[in-house]
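Its record is quoted verbatim for completeness.
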Amino acid sequence: MANTRSAAKQARVSVRRRAINVAVTKTVKTSVKTIRNLVKAGKKDEASKLLTKFQSEIDRAAKKGVIHKNQASRQKSRITALLKAAK
């Protein structure tokens, strides 16, 4: 329980931010999973089309501070390498 008004407000803000961060993280993870499943299924063309959408989502997440910029870069690199290896 918060002891001051400012602490109570901070607790409310924290809950709101967490909800946003979880939503952003979930979209990124879903994109990664979708691309990996498409590559595994042999649908490389569909996976390549989703790559640009994935890159913009992950860049947006890094810009917002949900994930670290180096983690975003690493994930983009790995997914791109996966697609190149599949072709």
Q: What stands out?
A: The chain has a mean pLDDT of 95. The two ends are 56 Å apart (CA to CA). The domain at 5-86 is CATH 1.20.58.110 (Methane Monooxygenase Hydroxylase; Chain G, domain 1).
